[in-house]
Amino acid sequence: MPHLPRLSFFRRRANHARGFLATLMLILMSISQVSSQTMSAELLEEPHAKEAISQTDATEALATAEPVWLERLASDPKLLNTQAILAPFARGEAETAVIVTLEPTPAAHDLATQSADALNRPSAFDLTESPVFFDLQDQTIRTQLRETVTQAVGQFIANQPKAGLTVTQRFSYQFGFAARVSPAALEQLLADPAVLRVEEDGLMEPHLRQGIPLIAADTPSATFTGSGLSIAIVDTGIDTSHPQLGGGSSIFNSKVIGGYDTGDNDADPRPNSNTGEAHGTACAGIAAGDLGDSGDYIGGVAPGAKLYALKITAGDGGSASDSAMIAAWEWAISHKNDDPANPILVISTSFGGGGYSSACDSYKPGLTTAAANAVAAGITIFASSGNDGFCSYISSPACISHVNSVGAVYDANIGDVGFCVNASYSCATPQYSGYCSSGYNAVFENTAADKVTAYSNSASFLTLFAPSHNAYTTDIKGAGGYASGDYDDAFGGTSAACPYAAGAAAVLQSAAKAKTGSYLTPAQVKSYLTSYGTTITDGKVTSVQKPRINLASAVNALPLTQSTVSVTASDPTATETDLTTGTFTFSRTGDTSAALTVNYTVSGSATAGSDYTALGTSVTFAAGSDTATQTVTPVQDTLIEADETVILTLSAGTGYTVGSPASATVTLTSDDPQDHTLTVTMEGTGTGRITSSPAGIDCGGDCSQSYANDSTIVLTASPGGGSDFAGWSGSCLGLATNCAIYLDEVKQVSASFTQRQNHSPTFELGDGQVLTPISLSATINDLALQPDGKIVAVGSSQNYNGGPTDLALARYNADGSLDTTFGTGGKLITSLTEYSDGGFSVIVQPDGKIVIGGYGGEHYTDSDPLDFALVRYLPDGSLDTSFATNGVVLLPPLAGANRWGFDLALQPDGKILFGGAQLVRFLSDGSLDATFGHNGQLAPVTDGSRTKIALQPDGKILVAGNTVGTNHDFALERYNRDGSLDTSFATSGKLTLDIQGYRDDVEDLALQIDGKILLAGFSTDADGNEDFALVRLNSDGSLDTGFGNDGMVTTELGALQERGHSMALQPDGKILVGGMYRCQVPGDYMAFF
């Protein structure tokens, strides 16, 4: 008797859920106002688990479950999938998982109107009840939609009572979120007029040498390879250490270039190497694994394509929620062009659940909207049809009309095999029942290439077939995963068919780009794969006749387009000084399969032969290449001359047309001395004088002077009588009175002086001190100086020992007296929550508004940490109601974060950076900046206890703190403006420093005028003594070995504890570090070095 081989992950995981799904069917059908007639696509939530339950039995089950409120909920027309949503309540559970859809904002309606006439509008949006079309290939519309969704959803959630509502996902391109809700919270949501509908957040389960030739992919894959685009594998993660999937120890590499874990909401989408699920790794190897020759593995269908890993399962589990799938698809939209040379154009999803006899759009509106948005963004989605052996039903999300459903055929004769299929809904002829679990029959069959497998779900609206079963593919490296080695030789099910189809689509897109100059739309991808496929009849249900992919036929059907050629100066400058070359880059669109010679003419003020090496009159594109280059090599001469130009202009020829730009210019920079002008302007209410070294500038107003190229000019600001110097702007920044400028081009600097306020030199009490009673106990944590000389102090106050704390704020005049125009007599106390509130950082905006960063929460435990708190006041001390919710933001920390927000930084564009155990960026209105990190947030490696932020002049962001662990180390990260790590800094954007082998803590961060970075704090030695510690780094994150001991300094003053807490830079470049000095005897002392 043939054996029953492992079918696929889809079936094995589905079996585990059968007991739960049988219980799910006990919901009373008679009280549901959403019947099967209104959801025509629905047969059953999980067909393989359906049991015949009488109405009497169901009624008795609900009789013990408070039928009055259950009936009230079930009758609400906003509630979809009523039976599935209410089932947990009927079983006595406290919560159920739902997806909530909100009414769109007026801004969204405007964006839809702007998108209505888009030329790339897919025809699928013409279907009845199709989601609203937004042109998500338009960067502006995509950004604006994400911002209005983020703001609207965030505002709605903030206004909901916290009891009974736990938000699990927030979406980016549809007005909704996922949550776990109690009955009371569900009823309140349904009663809210802003709620459009509530649906179930369902669970889904994860559903070569012969396979690639079967779909005629061997020749196209070798020619076009899928290069120039990426496939997103939405699954259980990818083991990126596998040699065919990039290899190495980093999260991402040259093959898997990005991704996210929406199941766990973190940035590492890899499965655990020992206990993780290998399903996604196997799918990745089929779709786009690198070429190889290990056993039967020869590489993926699209070996030249890049991959993104989108893990939707929680931890090591094998199931995923609808909301995690939605979040993954939306992530792919947001990050489609992270690598412009390899945009995400294909999604492969070998997960599913349920069974549907027609398109399930109305039954799964959340998933449908996410799929429609992906299609609108130009991304083609493939999903496995499922492994239950259905003859008239396919699983979700394959049943969605915007998704391409993939069934399975054998790729070869692999002998006799047997499977367990659904006993009630499979039309495959059963032979035995004893081999399988209850509700399943055993089916044995002979195999052959192109025979539809007995387990493959089929239906009249299935899209296509692809190879499956016993696929030899990548496994989690080592002992983890399916097999003990690095490969699995028996991966199958529709889970394997789906990535075959995705890889074929990638090769087709690569071929289209090469042949026509542009990618196909998702509708065109579907049309080519289905119109030019090989028709296959499903033997178990002969009415289903669908195409099996024939990639060679699809690629050969693509039209050939004559190349259009353009030219740019990719390196527009060549120099005589060091004979640095310039470069012209030629680009062609259309058919790139053959070599092509393109003609051009050369002109300009430079002379070929004497100023640069002659360029000839033509350039040749290599076969298969869409770019060619021509190098401009300068010739060094003894003539004194100005900069000169080389102008290259395309001319007509055979086999191409001249496109735009048709001309480009490379400038030959002379090595002869040239002068540049430095201009100084004066700003502010005060007076002063600016002088320079070397001499040339000496003025009390606007002035300028020319200096030799490559000169370093030091400007000195001297305030006049009754004035103070307020800082530099332009090509020089900072408050130091000296400013060094490297003059390699024309530059401009502004110096600001303010009129000194008339105040008492004795400062309030006459001894330089100010004591301000706020409450029983009050602490100042940060100060800010306003341009008018007033001083803002922020901290916390407490009315009695052990009582709650509030955010405390005071403003002083320059003489130390309270500013009575501010708050109440110069003081403010703001209660954000009922327990613990306070401020750690303060900044004053250019418009005079005051922003406070700190914390707020009902209580503080490791399992329930305090929230990030951000508050903005008007200059008079009243809350700025235009900011966030009545001037206040309370943001729960990300998973794993254990402390409040600590430091603030204001960007020139008005956006606000807030750092603690996570880094958050807000728009100027207090909403999260969805263009930064993940919905405005990212989690640095620092533990958040003393996180410091610094903004570089180029907009890059430095975040300093401590590593997490027993022995802290100095930690520093640098981010680009969008929140991605700056991989040019240190090691992939991150730096950790162990100074003396024990605990090291960063307390302050500063930027020198030359771009070098200073970190101050303390370091613990082997005897447990804490010493002042100072580190200086070069701008690239390397240690400045010319400073201290290879970039590090520790200073021992002879005490038990010596901690550096704050740092200042003197105009002469010397560094002040202040902190604490604690002796063996009681008492602390201030210390400086």
Overview of the structural elements:
It is a single chain. The chain has 1089 residues and is α+β, with helices and mostly antiparallel strands. Strand 41 and strand 42 form a beta hairpin. The strands form 16 sheets. A 7-stranded parallel sheet has the order 8-9-7-11-13-15-18, with helices on both faces. It has 16 helices and 62 strands. The chain is globular, with a radius of gyration of 33 Å. 15% of the residues lie in helices and 34% in strands.
Number of continuous helical runs: 16
Largest sheet: 7 strands, parallel
Q: What is the terminal-to-terminal distance?
A: 85 Å
- Write down the overall geometry: globular
E-strand count: 62
Quickly give the structural class: alpha+beta
What topology, given as strand order, has the largest sheet? 8-9-7-11-13-15-18
Radius of gyration: 33 Å
Instruction: Give the fraction of residues assigned to helices.
Output: 10-25%
* Low-pLDDT windows of residues: 1-65, 1081-1089
**Mean of all residue-level pLDDT scores:** 83
